[in-house]
Amino acid sequence: MSVFGRSKSLPFQIKDDKEMFLLQESIEKYGILNSLIVRPVLDGYYEIISGHRRKYAAEKLGY
After folding, report:
1. What's the helix, strand, coil split of the chain in %, to 5?
2. If you average pLDDT over every residue of the chain, what do you get?
3. Which of 23, 41, 20, 19 lies closest to 31 in space, CA to CA?
4. Residue 42 DSSP label
5. Whose CA is closest to 39, among 24, 55, 50, 28?
6. Largest CB tally within 10 Å, which of 8, 27, 39, 42?
7. Which residues of the chain, if any, have pLDDT below 50?
């Protein structure tokens, strides 16, 4: 997952709140049901357009 970077224009902060906990439970039980939307940048890296919270939750679970 290190080839995916956050969008520079991200208008919000990702927080460890109740909603993040629920997202982590869902990912742990069902996996990631909606894929991330990314676009290529330089040298094999990708910028996340949609799915920042899913990526963060999956990383916290060890994916």
Report:
1. 35, 15, 50
2. 88
3. 23
4. S
5. 50
6. 27
7. none
Could you count the other beta carbons within 10 Å of the beta carbon of residue 54? 20
CA–CA distance, 29 with 63 (Å, rounded to integer): 13
For 35: left if phi > 0, alpha if psi spans -120 to 50, otherwise beta; the answer is: beta
Q: From start to end of 1-63, where are the E strands?
A: 4-5, 37-40, 46-50
User: Measured in whole angstroms, how far is the alpha carbon of residue 45 from the centre of its chain?
Assistant: 15
pTM value?
Answer: 0.81
- 7-10 long-range contacts, CB within 8 A, separation 24+: 7/47, 7/48, 7/49, 7/52, 8/47, 10/52
How many CA atoms are closer than 13 Å to the CA of 56, on its beta-carbon side? 15
